[in-house]
Amino acid sequence: MSTVHVAVVIPAKDEAERVAATVRACRAVPRVDLVVVVDDGSTDATQDHARSAGAVTVRHSVSRGKASALETGASVVAMRDYENGPARLLLFIDADLGDSAASCAELVPPVVDGVADMAIAVPPKQAGAGGRGRVVRAARHAITSMTGWSPVAPLSGQRCLTREAYEKASPLAEGWGVEVGLSVDVLAAGLSVIEVPCDITHRVTRNDRAGQMHRAGQYRDVLLAIASRRLRRRGLRPRQFAQSLHDQQPFTAYRAY
Predict the structure, then answer these.
(1) CB–CB of 100/197 below 8 Å?
(2) For the chain, which end, N or C, has fewer CB atoms within 10 Å of the first or last residue's CB respectively?
(3) Residue 243 predicted with pLDDT over 90
C-alpha cells in the first residue's frame, strides 16, 4: 500500500518575520514532504525567507487574496504529485503561526485514517485579541443554517483535507470567506468534517483601527460567501438538515445526511 504524503500550502503576505519559523515547523510534521509558500504580493522579503527555510515558493506580483493564493498552492502541489502514487493531502496553514504550526500535525491522522475528509484546527483562546466575536458568530450561524453543523472555530484557516474535498469546494470563496465556503461546500458534497484542538498561536488582531477594518472585511466576505452559496442552492434539504443537527457531537466527525 502506498504511503500517503501531505503537502503544506501557506498563503503569505508581508510575513517575513514569521514565515521561516512556520515553514520549518511544517516540515517537521510527519508525512509532510512538500511545503509550498505562495507570496501574495508582499512588499517585504517573505519569499526569500520562505525559500531559505526550505519551502517551494511562488509569487503573485500583486495581491489576489487568500483564496487565490490557496488555489495557486494547490495547483503547484498537483504538478508535483507522484506519478504512480495517491494524491497528496493538502494541509492549509496560515503564515503567522511560527513554531506553533507543528501542532497542526494533529490534523493529519483523522484524514489519513479516513475518519473525516477535512480536519479543522480549534485553537485555544488568544490573549490580547480584540473584537467581540461578531464575525465568528455570523460565520457559525451561516454554516449551521446551511448544513446543520455548528463549528467551534468556523474561521479557522488550519485545515487538512483530501484532494476530493478540495475539488468539491473549488473554486474557493473569495477573500476571508474561504473557510466558511470550504465548510459548506465539503458538507454539501456529502463529505465529512471534524474539528481537532490544536495548540497554535496567531498574531492577534487588536481592537485598533486596523483591527476593526480587518474584521469588517471578514464580515463582508463571510456574507458574500454565504449569499453566493444560497444562490447556487448549496446546503441540505430540510429533512437532512434536521437529522444532521440532531446527531452532531463536538469534536467528532460530522457528515450531513
Answers:
(1) no
(2) N
(3) no
Residues 222 and 181: their CA atoms lie apart, in Å, by 8
CA–CA separation, 201 and 124 (whole Å): 8
Cα 94 from Cα 245, distance rounded (Å): 30
Query: Which neighbouring-strand residues pair with 161?
Result: 90, 118
Euclidean distance between CA atoms 120 and 157, whole angstroms? 8
CB 92 within 8 A of CB 137: no
Across the chain, mean pLDDT equals 88
Kindly tell me if the per-residue pLDDT of 80 is higher than 90. yes
| Rounded Cα gap, residues 181 and 204, in angstroms | 23
**pTM for this predicted structure:** 0.88
Q: Please name each of the domains of the chain with its CATH number.
A: 1-113 (3.90.550.10), 125-155+162-187+205-257 (no CATH)
231 contacts: CB under 8 Å, gap ≥ 6: none
d(CA 119, CA 108) in angstroms, rounded, equals: 7
Cell numbers of 80, please? 508535483
Nearest to 145 by CA among 234, 252, 36: 234
